[in-house]
Task: inverse folding
């Protein structure tokens, strides 16, 4: 009797447990077009895929009804196209193959390149420290100059400046740089890398108010006067963290892509038909290019 009682209790527990087991939830159907169901999941998935500005058009009740109606219209047209056998059309098949190729290439790039490149916080900080010069406070100077043809002219003008003559007045009268001469020789503020090297080197070596000795450049001889200096704020790590991460990610992805492609090329049989390629290039030449003798470059007799 005890054994029978135990068996009956166990059976009741099993039956109860099976009755309480969660059943697989049936998809919520929003519409049926002939025998095809449009489910809630499909509706939400397509809605989510919309750009932000477009999604806003379908947020209210009327918008959601309109969006579902668009899905119904598309399904009707799709079914009609299949009825007419348009999926067998050569153009459609070609486009389908192109679509498959593009998406498969995207998938392999994601799995073999994008997903394998990781940039962590340490990588970003290391880059920031190793390239500290790029993120230092930027120094700018404001300068005026007088440009003349010869060193003797520059030296004579420098003597006049040392005797107290006004730099801006002399620039307006003698400088060959007509644009800056109108402003007393002022070229405004500039940082390193914005001026020709000789001019820049001389300007950054001066203190505010100082005038240089004659400086030779490709344009002639300059007398440079620094009228102001200012130092910007140093760039903080948090300000450039995202930029560095994107830069490192792009560099590493390119490096991995290059090596990955080279590996695939080594295991692939590739034949370039040079004659066919040359014929194609000839076909695409303009009439002027076809008439021009080979080896003759533009601007040469």
Result:
């Amino acid at each position: 009797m005890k054994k029978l009682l135990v068996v009956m209790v166990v059976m009741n527990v099993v039956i109860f447990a099976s009755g309480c087991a969660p059943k697989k939830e049936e998809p919520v159907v929003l519409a049926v077009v002939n025998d095809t169901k449009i489910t809630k999941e499909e509706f939400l998935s397509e809605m989510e895929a919309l750009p932000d500005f477009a999604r806003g058009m379908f947020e209210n009740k009327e918008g959601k009804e309109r969006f579902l109606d668009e899905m119904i219209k598309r399904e009707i047209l799709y079914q009609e196209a299949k009825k007419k056998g348009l999926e067998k059309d050569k153009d459609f098949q070609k486009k389908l193959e192109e679509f498959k190729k593009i998406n498969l290439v995207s998938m392999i790039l994601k799995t073999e390149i994008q997903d394998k490149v990781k940039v962590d916080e340490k990588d970003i900080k290391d880059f920031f420290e190793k390239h500290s010069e790029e993120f230092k406070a930027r120094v700018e100077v404001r300068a005026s100059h007088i440009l003349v043809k010869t060193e003797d002219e520059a030296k004579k003008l420098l003597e006049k400046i040392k005797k107290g003559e006004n730099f801006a007045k002399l620039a307006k009268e003698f400088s060959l740089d007509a644009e800056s001469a109108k402003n007393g020789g002022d070229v405004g503020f500039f940082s390193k890398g914005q001026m020709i090297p000789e001019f820049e080197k001389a300007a950054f070596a001066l203190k505010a108010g100082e005038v240089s000795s004659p400086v030779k450049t490709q344009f002639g001889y300059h007398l440079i006067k620094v009228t102001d200096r200012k130092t910007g704020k140093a760039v903080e790590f948090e300000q450039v963290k995202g930029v560095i991460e994107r830069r490192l990610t792009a560099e590493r992805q390119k490096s991995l892509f290059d090596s990955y492609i080279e590996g695939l090329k080594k295991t692939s049989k590739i034949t370039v038909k040079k004659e066919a390629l040359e014929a194609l290039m000839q076909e695409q030449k303009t009439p002027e290019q076809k008439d021009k003798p080979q080896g003759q470059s533009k601007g040469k007799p």
